[in-house]
Amino acid sequence: MSARRTLLRTGAAAALAALAWPARAASPRTAPLVEVWKSPTCGCCQDWVQYLERNGFRTRTFDTGNAEARARLGMPERLGSCHTARVEGFVIEGHVPAREIHRLLRERPKALGLAVPAMPIGSPGMDGPEYGGRRDPHDVLLVAADGRTSVYQRYP
After folding, report:
1. pLDDT at 65
2. Which among 119, 140, 123, 122 is positioned nearest to 131, based on CA atoms?
3. What is the pLDDT of residues 43-57, one digit of tens each?
4. How far is CA 108 from the centre of its chain?
5. Rounded to 5, what percent of the chain is helix, strand, coil?
6. CB 139 within 8 A of CB 154
7. Which helix (H) or strand (E) holds 99?
8. What is the DSSP string of 2-68?
9. Burial (Cβ within 10 Å: 0-12, 13-18, ≥19) of residue 6
10. How far apart are CA 16 and CA 10, in angstroms?
11. Region for residue 68 given its phi and psi (left: phi exceeds 0; alpha: psi -120 to 50; beta: otherwise)
12. Among 42, 75, 95, 126, which residue has the least CB neighbours within 10 Å?
């Protein structure tokens, strides 16, 4: 086979692979796995887990609470919420939007992870009909390994 034909065939294979990439990226097998530690009776935690699944993540939940996981993973207590998660080496505390988790995984900053302290109404999982469309302003914080924070995204 000529070098030109080999190059054309390889180029066509690469082009087809590039076209197929988005389908592979969205497949459940390759979706990032988020491990979540939460209370077995917390409805907003379960709502957040379902929200993540609808937004391109696989999940594995541990209904053992999250205080121990938060401490073990190094998330400062002052940033605590009702669930703690881990995804690809990053810690996620509270009702962090999927958009910011995807951004974190894309940008891969030198950080411990992200946190939405407390449980702001209107954040994912805290946005059900029982809240009547209310949305409290809140920040998604980027948490450094030493516990310092900076605003990663503001939600008015």
Report:
1. 79
2. 122
3. 999 999 999 999 999
4. 12
5. 40, 25, 40
6. yes
7. helix 98-107
8. -HHHHHHHHHHHHHHHHHHHHHHHHSTTTSPEEEEEE-TT-HHHHHHHHHHHHTT-EEEEE-S-SHH
9. exposed
10. 10
11. alpha
12. 42
Cβ neighbours, 10 Å, residue 108 = 10
CA 100 – CA 138 distance, rounded (Å): 13
- What's the pLDDT score for residue 29? 77
Residue stretches of the chain with pLDDT short of 70: 1-28
Query: Which of 85, 70, 80, 155 minimizes the C-alpha distance to 118?
Result: 80
Q: For position 27, what pLDDT does the model report?
A: 59
Strand 58-62 relative to strand 83-87, pairing: unpaired
Whether the full predicted model's pTM is greater than 0.85, yes or no, is: no
Categorise residue 122: left if φ over 0, alpha if ψ from -120 to 50, beta otherwise: left
pLDDT at 32: 98
